Description:
Number of helices: 1
Order of helices and strands: HEEEEEEEE
Helix content: 25-40%
Strand order of the largest sheet: 1-2-3-4-5
Amino acid sequence: MIKLIRTSKHTLDRIFIFGLFVLFCTTSCLLVFMGANQYRNISALMWRNKEITTASTYLKEKLNEYDTSHSISFSESDGNPIIVLSHSQTSELVTYIYTYDGNLRELVQQKSAVFSAELGIPIAKADDLKIEIYGRNLYCFTLTDSFGNLCQIYISQNTD
Length: 160
């Protein structure tokens, strides 16, 4: 007599192992996609923060460099405010800081030269600069980056 070996007992075991394998692969893929999405979000926030902090830090340091009496003044070109910096009244060089074409720019030139916004060197990404004057020597500079984030900088000028 011939005996038949039935393998149907092991079919349930194979389905269980295959199900565990599919669950493991699905979980692994989900974890990788969630990690990649989190990394992308963190990177985007870092770039947003980098733009506004670079522009604001540059502006703070530049204004601190010119922290003497009558060295900071303001002008306007095409409706955009310009910060005009000069070390002394007798100095031939003047520094202009302004926003143009999505960048905070700096232009150093002689006082007698005609100001042209295109000539400035891009320093950092910034869409807008607003200047408010409080009293005799307190200024508020508001920078807006390309994402719409605002950064307000308050500077009190030395009047010595």
